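Sequence, structure tokens reproduced for reference:
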Amino acid sequence: MKLALLSDLHANRQAFDACLAHARAQGAERFALLGDLVGYGADPRYVVQQAMALAAQGALLVQGNHDAQAVRPQPAAAQQAPSMAALSAAWTHAQLVAEERDFLAALPLTAVVDGILLVHATADAPERWRYADNAVVAQQSLDAATQHPGVQHVFCGHVHQQSLFYRGTGRSLMRFAPVAGVAIPVAPHRQWLATVGSVGQPRDGDARAMYALLDTRAWLLRFERVAYDHAAAAAAIRATGALPEFFAQRLERGQ
């Protein structure tokens, strides 16, 4: 099976469409969305509706922190100084209809399929929204995930960058910097944790969208970068008249 792993879509219609098209052209047979379908971007309804359609076709989905915030945004009266994320959550909540909010609310924090654990943040405490951006946190997440029988691979998002950790001969994890488009053997005799990057808001200085493609027949993992019309996505944010300008600039800079 070729499984396309997409995370942190962040209501970016243009990036999501580009990644879906790219993955299908690469032979993707199933999709997994690893959270943060919404937040920051201008098209939350479109992205959620596409996610609902994919779920009906057998896609795997987990909830991200921005999804949870959009379902139940913190009241402005409870905030001393609302953050940009909080402003985005309130705006997104108002855009979504009840069915779409219910869909986000019902998403699980983790999912397990065929020896693979999917989570937005970390498997040890998914509700805390920790970043698996270093070997210590990645190891804690992998240790927790591999308590599930048969699980050798963990895929997560939240970090907005692409990285791969694996357990060598000792207990400590080793970090590998992937190259886009180059397949990496991830045989299940080892244990692996990958952050698949962000479809809708890359933060490594490269504006191209990110996702990963896993071939479970050959156990090959390929991290992908996909060019898309980020200028149109930025223009859509500005056209809302409500979302911060910084969100548009971030897409243009890729950071």
